[in-house]
UniProtKB/TrEMBL annotation:
Upper classification of the organism: Bacteria, Pseudomonadati, Pseudomonadota, Gammaproteobacteria, Methylococcales
UniProt-listed PROSITE patterns: PROKAR_LIPOPROTEIN (PS51257)
Official protein name in the record: META domain-containing protein
Assigned keywords, A-Z: Signal
Signal sequence, renumbered to the chain: 1-29
Residue ranges of domain DUF306 in the record: 63-171
InterPro entries: DUF306_Meta_HslJ
Length: 176
C-alpha cells in the first residue's frame, strides 16, 4: 500500500473545528456571562481620562507632574552611556496617571502607575510623523520605555530601568 504524499486539507480541519465549537456552544460551554470578579489588592489605572485616578501616582516624589528629557542610555552589556541621536525626546508624567511622550517625529500618550520605585507604562495613542530622521532611535526609546519596570529619582535625574535589565533610560528634569 502506498502512503499518501499530500498533506491533509486545511479547509477540512477548519470545518471540523467549527463543528466542535458549535457542539460545545450548544452544550452550554460558550456563554456570554462574565466571570465573577476576584478581589485583588492591585490598583488599576483608570480607563478614561475623565475618571479620577487613585492617588498612587505621586508616591511622595516629584516624579509626576514633571517633564523629563531623555539625555542618555546605559546599556548593561558594556556599561557605557549611549544616545543614538541627539533628538529631543520628552516624557511628561501627569498626576492623574496619564503620560505624554514627544519627540521631533512622534507624539503619544498613555497610562502609568508608579509606587515604591516600581513603574508600569502603557502607550495607548501614538501619532508618528512620516518624516522621522532617526526611526531606530524612536523605536528603541518607545520599546525601552514600555519595558520599564522600576525607577529611581535623584534630585533632577530620573533613571528608568527596563524589566530585562538591559537598558536604563536617563532623563533630566525640564523647567516646570
Amino acid at each position: 500500500m502506498k502512503a499518501r504524499a499530500t498533506p491533509s486539507n486545511p479547509y477540512r480541519f477548519a470545518a471540523r473545528l467549527l463543528i466542535i465549537l458549535a457542539f460545545l456552544c450548544a452544550a452550554g460551554a460558550c456563554t456570554t456571562a462574565k466571570p465573577a470578579k476576584v478581589a485583588t489588592s492591585a490598583k488599576k489605572a483608570p480607563i478614561r481620562p475623565d475618571v479620577p485616578a487613585p492617588d498612587i501616582y505621586n508616591d511622595g516624589t516629584h516624579l509626576s507632574n514633571a517633564r523629563w528629557k531623555w539625555v542618555t542610555t546605559v546599556q548593561a552589556h558594556d556599561n557605557k552611556r549611549h544616545l543614538l541621536h541627539l533628538d529631543n525626546y520628552f516624557l511628561e508624567l501627569k498626576t492623574d496617571g496619564w503620560f505624554n511622550v514627544e519627540s521631533p517625529c512622534f507624539k503619544g500618550d498613555g497610562m502609568y502607575e508608579a509606587e515604591d520605585g516600581r513603574i508600569a507604562l502603557i502607550l495607548l495613542h501614538s501619532h508618528p510623523s512620516k518624516h522621522c530622521l532617526h526611526p531606530e532611535s524612536l523605536t528603541f526609546f518607545l520599546k525601552t520605555l514600555e519595558a520599564g519596570s522600576s525607577y529611581r529619582e535623584d534630585a533632577e535625574r530620573l533613571s528608568l530601568y527596563d524589566k530585562r535589565g538591559n537598558n536604563t533610560l536617563i532623563f533630566m528634569r525640564q523647567g516646570e
